[in-house]
Write a structure and sequence with these properties.
2 copies of one chain form a homodimer. Chain A is built from 12 helices and 7 strands. Chain A is an alpha/beta fold. In chain A, strands 3-2-4-1-5-6-7 form a 7-stranded parallel β-sheet, with helices on both faces. In chain A, α4 packs across α10, α6 packs parallel to α7 and α11 runs antiparallel to α12.
Chain lengths: 312, 312
């Protein structure tokens, strides 16, 4: 199917066309940029909520329970589950997505798992581009679910309007979340599995941490037990509170900041690609020889190569 | 102190000069590149062992127990403990490094903690540069200890000649390590805390995973209990086996590959810096306006900006 026909069906709300377009984006298939160009004017309406946290915190379960609450309001919900997977297996380890049977049968819900195949670096960019496609398709709410363990995951979460950090009541989690740089990007904290362990201590620890930060918005801390639906309504409420706090101005400011970051990333990526074309790689190899032979230091070689590139 | 005097003292094996140089590298202080240029010809002798794995796996304890074994052979050991820390706290959460009192009093051992301050991206580069300085200073063995949770940590670990992946006997760990892309970079597996949980099942799972991969080198799996020194000698032996497997040729090939990656990284970084100078940023803002107004798509704006940059 040609790109024009695909877009026509996409704009006619055909979910098969949507799925194909998402695959083109994920695979960086030829022509995917032009498709994104065509979708772009239709974007800007969807609200994005990032759900992040350590493995096993119960992010997927929370997403499963939150989704029906939005559905009863008539909102169309898209879920992007990002899973930075090992190239060792060649595929995703997303067995846990099987649970979403109830949601799958609802055509107001769209679920897409995204896994990296080989390179982690591109996942944040692809997730953002897929979110643009879902936005253009007409979803009201996009839930971006990611494991919060590294920079890539932080990048994905930061591409949201409201970021929910899900933790379990173990003191170690709070420390690890801090190490991963997640504390400062969270707009709402969720202590899940609050029926296990020492949930109140975890909440107290979080409150202490948060009291150290000077922020206009003090992130609410919600205790939940996803499996029994406990606190899920309150979580939804906390997300709504943050949205209200942002207001239209704050929402637009976040989106503009996100667009700036995305634009910079695109430009750097294009530049990198053009740098390592045939010519550039050949020159890299010859510089590598000289550095290997200790005629030059790595930094000297880098500076020389850049001067040569500028002259090209 | 001037750079010349600092280098003179460095080459006279003054550890205070070493510490100062490492700080210059970490802070990217003016002149640090020239110092690295001067050190570079003296590098290439040290063997690097990366020790990575999930938080709480016992990496630090293993490093503490391994180090004296190398010391009895008369080897000088440097330890770089990388800790991707939250900018929220503004400092490292490395309370656990306090345990190394025994090692600190030995002047054949040098311990350095490295934390990110704000940006994770630069940690891998800095860790590699610090390792170069330690190599030039005359350490025989460099132990690079990192939390294996994301791409940055994978990058750090990959800058080693032998990579040890430390896991605890919980099935979840194996899956998480796979997700983080750690399985394929490990040369030696270590199941630590083997007295707890189901260590034999973990070993069996690892064996099954490894049997799926086609590799010349089949990574040994060592069971350890760091706290009681159990298996630590065997871990050292497994590292030595991998080194013997690599041979001089394999060792040089790894180092050359590492140098290529470092050189590419340096070049890309310099290029990025020169791209976002005053002029580039100004143009970015004007393109952002147009994308925000939906006159252009992000990809179109990126391509236009690059064409304009090429003309500059």
């Amino acid at each position: 199917m040609g790109a024009d026909r695909l877009l026509e069906r996409f704009f006619a709300k055909d979910t098969i066309a949507l799925a194909k377009i998402i695959s083109l984006i994920e695979n960086r298939a030829p022509g995917y940029q032009e498709i994104l160009d065509a979708l772009y004017p239709k974007t800007g309406r969807a609200y994005r909520v990032g759900i992040t946290g350590p493995p096993g915190a119960g992010k997927s379960s929370l997403v499963d329970k939150l989704t029906p609450l939005y559905r009863t309001e008539g909102k169309r919900v898209a879920i992007i589950a990002c899973d930075p997977t090992s190239p060792f297996t060649g595929g995703a380890l997303l067995g846990d997505r099987i649970r979403m049977q109830d949601l799958i049968s609802d055509d107001g819900v769209y679920i897409r798992s995204m896994a990296t195949r080989g390179s982690l670096g591109g996942l944040a960019k692809s997730a953002h581009e897929v979110a643009l496609a879902l936005d253009a398709f007409g979803f009201d709410l996009i839930l971006l679910e990611t494991i919060g363990v590294g920079q890539v995951e932080v990048d994905i979460a930061q591409a949201a309007d409201t970021v929910v950090l899900v933790l379990v009541p173990q003191s170690g989690d709070v420390v690890q979340a801090m190490k991963a740089g997640l504390m400062e990007i969270a707009d709402v904290f969720c202590v899940n599995k609050a029926d296990q362990g020492e949930a109140d201590i975890a909440v107290k620890n979080l409150q202490t941490m948060l009291s150290l930060a000077m922020r206009d918005w003090v992130p609410p801390i919600v205790k939940t037990v996803a499996l029994t639906n406990q606190g899920v309504e309150q979580l939804k409420e906390a997300i709504a509170q943050h949205r209200a706090f942002l207001g239209e101005e704050g929402f637009q400011a976040r989106r503009r900041e996100r667009l700036r970051a995305f634009l910079k990333q695109l430009i750097e990526e294009e530049l990198r690609t053009s740098l390592w074309d045939g010519e550039g790689l050949k020159y890299l190899e010859s510089q590598l020889e000289r550095v290997w032979a200790k005629e030059l230091s790595p930094h000297q070689a880098a500076r020389e190569l850049l001067r040569a590139t500028a002259r090209r």
